[in-house]
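Module 6 notes. Inverse folding takes a fixed backbone as the condition and produces residue identities as the prediction. Think of it as a translation problem where the source language is geometry and the target language is the twenty amino acids. Below is one complete input and output pair. Work through it position by position during the lab.
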């Protein structure tokens, strides 16, 4: 039984399930594609890498080389979820304004881009807590 792998996978599943349930209540309709949507509460990226890093720390020690690798990976993934994908979401907002103007002027119906790609600090903290709690439970 690979406990770090299981902690990461279960953390992802729980975070995505919570996100899907929250969106189901909000939209009053369940769809399986809710499991693949980016953004939203909680961050499944943060949950996955936090579950992995925490379980490695608990199993092999927080001073081990494996934990160092896992925590650096977690920092990069969380940074990406917050900053890089957040910037992509802002670009999508700008492009959507241009698409609206184009659609009005040209009578077209060009599809808009998804704007919520990144995560807020609260969404990231929620994911981190899920990952840590799952790691403690599994290990």
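Target side of the pair, the amino acids:
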């Amino acid at each position: 039984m690979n406990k770090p792998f299981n902690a990461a996978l279960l953390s992802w599943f729980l975070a995505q399930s919570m996100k899907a349930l929250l969106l189901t209540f909000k939209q009053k309709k369940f769809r399986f594609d809710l499991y693949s949507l980016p953004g939203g509460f909680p961050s499944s990226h943060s949950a996955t890498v936090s579950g992995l890093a925490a379980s490695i720390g608990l199993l092999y020690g927080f001073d081990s080389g494996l934990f160092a690798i896992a925590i650096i990976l977690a920092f990069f993934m969380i940074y990406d979820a917050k900053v890089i994908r957040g910037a992509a979401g802002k670009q999508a907002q700008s492009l959507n304004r241009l698409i609206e103007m184009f659609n009005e002027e040209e009578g077209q119906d060009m599809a808009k881009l998804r704007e919520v790609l990144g995560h807020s600090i609260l969404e990231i903290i929620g994911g981190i807590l899920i990952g840590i709690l799952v790691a403690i439970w599994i290990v």
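Reference fact for the lab report: DSSP finds four helices and no strands in the chain.
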